[in-house]
Amino acid sequence: MKLKILIVEDDKLLAEAVSDYFKGKGWETRTEGEGDEAVRAAETAGFQMILLDVMLPGMDGFEVCRRIRRISDIPIFFITARVLEEDELFGYAAGADDYIAKPFSLPVLYAKVMAMMTRIRGERPMEKVRGGSVEINIRARTVRIRGEEKQLQPKEYELLRFFLENPGRIFTREQLLLRFWGYDFGGSSRVVDNHVKNLRKILMGSGCAIRTVRSSGYRMEVGEC
Fold first, then answer.
1. How far apart are CA 114 and CA 204, in angstroms?
2. pLDDT tens by residue, 176-199
3. Burial of 111 by CB count in 10 Å (0-12 exposed, 13-18 middle, 19+ buried)?
4. Is 67 exposed, middle or buried (0-12, 13-18, 19+ CB in 10 A)?
5. Looking at residue 184, what is its pLDDT?
6. Contact of 165 with 207, CB cutoff 8 Å
7. Which pLDDT band holds residue 98 (cuts at 50, 70, 90)?
8. Distance CA 13, CA 21 (A)
9. What pLDDT sits at residue 126?
10. What is the dihedral of CA 66, 69, 73, 79, to 10 degrees?
11. Mind listing the pLDDT tens digit for each residue in 35-84?
12. How far apart are CA 95 and CA 104, in angstroms?
């Protein structure tokens, strides 16, 4: 069965060039030039990879990525002429897997995509995440601590899973706000603090703790229970 790739790029010549190159390698391709069409395509077709331009008319690539992340963990590579560090951080917070900057070599782009696909196909889909006495069943969306099932709000579940999948890494309040509430969220950034506070209560005695790193953000520490 052919691998399928969605190319989201409003530069038609570039989109055609990338599409032709991947077709030559045996891929099935689809191109879209607008963000909302890309989201609809991702919802209805089974792609193995998305190449996503940041600068799109209407809905930009960051918002497209965030919306796709609500429904899928498909690898997303940003294609961009913007190489500022804050843009990269913004993209990773939205859920991007990697970046490639314009102008780029098609063989290099293809090599990066295939390296990602090799890693994915070499691993079994992760069904559970564990840390201390905490166990998350991803398929069932359940959380158990010391064997007891806990009821979490949707955002609490998403945050806990994210922290457990990335132990030891520091995430700023802004990164978490962008990833889980979106750039257009109109509320206070304190919503992150409140959710972390609730999770800390739930995690007490579990061997897992969300620590505050002064002037930086939050980090999950996992120890023995």
1. 42
2. 887 788 756 667 778 999 999 999
3. exposed
4. buried
5. 60
6. no
7. confident
8. 12
9. 57
10. -20
11. 899 999 988 878 889 999 988 888 888 899 988 888 888 889 998 876 66
12. 22
Contact status, residue 177 vs residue 152, Cβ threshold 8 Å: no
If you ran DSSP here, which 8-state letter would residue 80 be given? E
Instruction: Give the end-to-end CA distance of the chain in Å, rounded to a whole number.
Output: 45
Task: Decide: 71 and 56 in contact? Cβ < 8 Å.
Answer: no
Which one-letter amino acid corresponds to residue 111?
A
DSSP H stretches of helix in the chain? 12-24, 35-44, 61-69, 85-94, 106-121, 154-165, 173-181, 190-203
Q: What is the pLDDT of residues 104-157, one digit of tens each?
A: 888 888 888 888 887 766 544 557 888 889 999 887 889 999 999 999 998 899
Q: How far apart are CA 59 and CA 124, in angstroms?
A: 34
The token duo for 10 is: 């409003």
| Side chain identity, residue 7 | I
Burial pattern 136-147, b for ≥16 Cβ within 10 A else e, equals beeeeeebbbee
What is the biggest distance separating any 2 CA atoms in the chain, rounded to whole angstroms?
A: 57
Going by C-alpha positions, the residue among 180, 141, 178 that lies closest to residue 159 is: 180
